[in-house]
Backbone:
């Protein structure tokens, strides 16, 4: 009995006493780890892909990157960790202590306690080679792998940052974000370069359409924004648009992103031009501030001289080429009918890129539009557009900016196919 009581007291004592154990490693991104100014041996866990391996007699050096930054985190491990599985391209999880680095090239390094290979990579068969600077044309063959290169990683981080900066600009300027439809019954541009939408399985009655009328992938959200500008004074949309252009030029894609805005109570083309210029400069400065090394990589290895050209654009007022022949353009295009009535228009042209912005004041005169639609036999189809002018119409205008061309302008990338994750163009739809 005495022995049983002693054992019970011992068990209670053990259960109440804290058991010494390691504190779990906190998961951090490579960018977060590199941003720590004074590391004091914090236990962390980093997950990513090996960018380089260097083995010495007693020490193993790995550079691990997780896509959060251009820079990789140096991992220092005992040579006993060396393995064929620790190869360029392999995915790993590393746990250890974050310590101050003796090297001047980085503030910190990770002293590994545990390295786990999550996924092996056959470096010999891997199309992306270590320390080889592949041409962008070569990388287009591998849309599923090219994002793992430094240059495409930088481009896509800039793309992400620019997207956030554009949304922030419009929000700070009082614009309401509108999700305009991808499927539409109108041809906003009127060039006839449309993708028609049909169900994959044929409808039993050939004369009928899924939506009862022919519908297309949108070429622009302008007309839908004009609808919204009758209730909100400032609106914008940012989404994919589609053009069935039979072109493989360096400036065209079948699927690309457009930033479009519409402003009510707008009477001056100059006011519209100022918004366009502010959008470009504000977002570009944000990108340069938040992604300096990514932008620098493109300027250094892809487009030498682009840094100076971009700085010139940001420091000076834009030279804007404007025109007022919109009515004449509509007349010339009447056989295809482009229904974007404009009374004064402006384009922003950038060397090497082409048209970056296109904007105009819209035609708000009811009788002018009514007569024109009657001549074209489109009064019934566009009665809704006349209604916008009948019920509380105001002077208004707007613009569109090609997002991929904007990225080309910022980074100096020559081909538009290299600033979008998965380029779609004629005879090419990989993945």
Residues:
């Amino acid at each position: 009995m005495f022995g049983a009581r002693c054992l019970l007291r011992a068990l209670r004592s053990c259960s109440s006493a804290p058991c010494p154990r390691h504190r779990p490693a906190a998961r951090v991104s490579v960018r977060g780890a590199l941003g720590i100014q004074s590391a004091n041996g914090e236990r962390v866990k980093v997950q990513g892909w090996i960018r380089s391996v260097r083995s010495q007699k007693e020490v193993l050096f790995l550079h691990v990157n997780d896509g959060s930054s251009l820079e990789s985190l140096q991992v220092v491990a005992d040579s006993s960790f060396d393995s064929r599985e620790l190869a360029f391209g392999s995915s790993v999880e590393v746990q250890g202590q974050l310590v101050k680095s003796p090297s001047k090239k980085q503030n910190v390094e990770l002293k590994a306690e545990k390295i786990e290979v999550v996924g092996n990579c056959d470096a010999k068969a891997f199309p992306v080679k270590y320390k080889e600077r592949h041409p962008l044309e070569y990388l287009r063959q591998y849309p599923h792998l090219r994002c793992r290169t430094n240059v495409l990683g930088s481009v896509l981080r800039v793309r992400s940052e620019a997207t956030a900066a554009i949304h922030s600009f419009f929000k700070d300027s009082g614009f309401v974000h509108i999700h305009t439809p991808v499927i539409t019954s109108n041809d906003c541009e009127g060039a006839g370069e449309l993708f028609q939408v049909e169900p994959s399985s044929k409808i039993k009655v050939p004369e009928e359409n899924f939506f009862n009328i022919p519908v297309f992938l949108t070429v622009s959200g302008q007309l839908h924004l004009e609808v919204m500008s009758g209730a909100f004074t400032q609106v914008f949309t940012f989404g994919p648009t589609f053009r069935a252009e039979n072109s493989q030029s360096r400036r065209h894609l079948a699927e690309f992103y457009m930033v479009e805005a519409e402003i009510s109570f707008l009477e001056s083309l100059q006011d519209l031009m100022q918004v366009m210029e502010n959008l470009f400069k504000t977002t570009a400065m944000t990108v340069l501030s938040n992604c300096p090394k990514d932008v620098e990589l493109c300027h250094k290895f892809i487009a030498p001289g682009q840094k100076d050209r971009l700085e010139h654009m940001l420091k000076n007022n834009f030279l804007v080429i404007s025109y007022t022949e919109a009515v004449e353009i509509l007349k010339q295009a009447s056989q295809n009918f482009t229904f974007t009535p404009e009374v004064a228009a402006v384009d922003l042209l950038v060397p090497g890129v082409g048209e970056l912005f296109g904007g105009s004041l819209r035609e708000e005169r009811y009788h002018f539009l009514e007569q024109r639609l009657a001549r074209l036999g489109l009064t019934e189809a566009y009665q809704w557009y006349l209604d916008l002018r009948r019920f509380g119409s105001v002077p208004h205008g707007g613009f569109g900016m090609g997002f991929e061309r904007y990225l080309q302008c910022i980074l100096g990338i020559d081909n538009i196919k290299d600033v979008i994750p998965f380029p779609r163009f004629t005879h090419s739809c990989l993945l």
User: Anything to note?
Assistant: DSSP finds twelve helices and 15 strands in the chain. The CA atoms of residues 126 and 196 lie 39 Å apart. The chain has a mean pLDDT of 87.
